[in-house]
Every structure is written in structure tokens, then in C-alpha cells.
Amino acid sequence: TWADHASGGRDWARTWAEVGRFDRAGEAWSRALELAPGHVASRLALGRALLVQALLVQEVRVAAGVGAASRRGQALCARAAAALALALAGEMPEDSAAEVDLARAFLAGARDDWATAASLAADGAERYRTQPAEEDFLWFLGLASISVGDPARGRVACDRALAIRPVHPMATFVRGMNRFLQSDDAGAIEDLGRTIELWPEFAPAWFHRAIARDDAGDDAGALEDLAAARRLAGPDPRVHDLAARILLAAGRKNEAMAELDRALELDPEHFVTWWIRALAFEEAGDVGAARDALERALSIAPDFALALSARGRLRFVAGAVAGAIDDLD
Fold first, then answer.
1. How does DSSP assign 55-96, residue by residue?
2. Cα–Cα–Cα angle for 259, 265, 267, nearest 5°?
3. How confident is the model over 140-150, as pLDDT tens digits?
4. What is the model's pTM?
5. Spatial distance between the Cα atoms of 25 and 277, rounded to a whole number of angstroms
6. Which of 17, 40, 54 is nearest to 92 (CA)?
7. 26-68 tens-digit pLDDT
């Protein structure tokens, strides 16, 4: 029956989520909802899966302090918000108070109101202390803390979640990202490595461990992790961007430029790639090409601070002081 097929879809979705494949989980929840559109719990789960997926593909605030969301991440957030809002507008089961409160926290995050998301997650962690939902509020607080710039709070939240359930891949992963933001490369590498042991197909863990390894000076290890992330995640300009930065630092300019070319083939509007490309040209002494690449980045993302800073530096060197001041202000 259609109900049986929908139930099977939900089982598949839960199975994918348990191994860290939130992309596949989202697809399965979507299919289950096509078969049973009124299943509120499925819509809540879809919203959560989409938001987690969105956060994992955001333009690596962790990687380079870029602080800008990717278009794909924005689209996923919009889908997550729509699914969560629709579910919350429906009739919820009587015993779903924790699910509703968690969904409200996720919805605030999907709408980019991370201060509210963090507050709701913290409230939920206290309200449902010693209850099964506590650990979900805690790891989500850890994730929200990254977006509000409070990795210390995020790490404490993840520590609490892991004290409740020591084998918790998501809490371990999120703690690793928070530790990286606290300049604890060794701790981040440890947590992300543990996540990989538990979720070997979870591409973001490989990607973020590559970032931590690069920061710790392990270029070879970082490139190995990026190769694994590329194999698992498929085409992703972020992987090529990070590989290019590592190769540039190692003086391997031709290989770095090839990585950037691949990134732009995947997404010509990927402004971070244009910024890295500008840095490569500037280092090679080709100021004109560097300026052109920065203009391209800023035509896509006018408020991209790293590109503005780089352009301001070039303008200052060229004697265009007024323009430099505008960029650097």
C-alpha cells in the first residue's frame, strides 16, 4: 500500500541520517512525504535534515573566516524553513512538546536568526534535562554557537551531549569544529577523526579535518583528507578552493591554478574562488589579473570583506588612497 511505501521511505531516511548522510536522508524524507503528505513528523524530520545539510555546505566560516553563505546553503535553508513552518502550523501529537521546541530552534536557524536559535536550544537543553531530547538540543546549541561566534559555549554544550551519550557522531563533529575555532587544532583533529571512524562516509568530517590539518601544517594529510571528501561529496568548489590554498602555500602555483579552474567550472559565481585566484595572481606579481579577479568576486558578493580588504590593499599600493580607504573602512 501507499502507507507501507511511505513507512519504508521513513525507515530509509532514518537509516541514512544514522550514518551521517543527510543529503540522502533529505531525499528519502521528501519521497515519504510525496506518498503521505500529512505526516507531520516526516515534515519536521525533513526540515531538520535540510538545515543540517545547509549548515554543512555553508561557505566555510570555519575554513577561512569567510562568513558568507553559499547559494546552495541559502536554498537549503529556505527549503528547511518552509518544511518546518508547515509542520509547526499543523496539528502536532500531544506528546511532541520537545519535538516542537526543537523544531522552533531549527526554524530560527533556517531563517538565519542564530541568536534566537541558540537561545531556544539552550532553553530546551535545560527544560528537557535528563530526558532523551536533551542531547539533541545540546548538539544543536553547539552548532548554533558557531554562527553566533561563541565556540566556547558550543564546546561546553557538546561536552554535555557526549557525557550523556559518548558515542554521538554529530556532537563529536560539532565539538571538533568548535575546538578548531578555539585554535585547538589537535583537539579538532582528534574529534573529527573520531567522527570519521563512526561515520566514514560523512564528507564534512573529512573536509573540516583537512582544514584543521592544514592549519596545523600537515599539508600532505590535508590533501589526503580533501581527496576523501571529494570522493564522498562529489563535485564541490570548496574542496578545490581549499586544495588550491594549500598548494599555493606550498609553492605549487600551477597545480593550485588548475584546482581553481576546476572550481570555477563547477560554479562560475563562486566568489570565494575568485578571491583565492586574486591572491594567487598578486603573489605572482600580476596585479592587473589580481584586480580583475577581485572585481569579479565583488560583482557577485559586494560585501565580501576579504575581497574588499585585498582590493583596498592593491589600491593603496597603486596610490589610489581614497578608494583604498573606502574598501578598508
1. HHTSB-HHHHS--B--HHHHHHHHHHHHHHHHHHHSPPPTT-
2. 105
3. 999 999 888 89
4. 0.82
5. 35
6. 40
7. 788 788 877 777 777 777 777 777 777 776 655 444 333 444 4
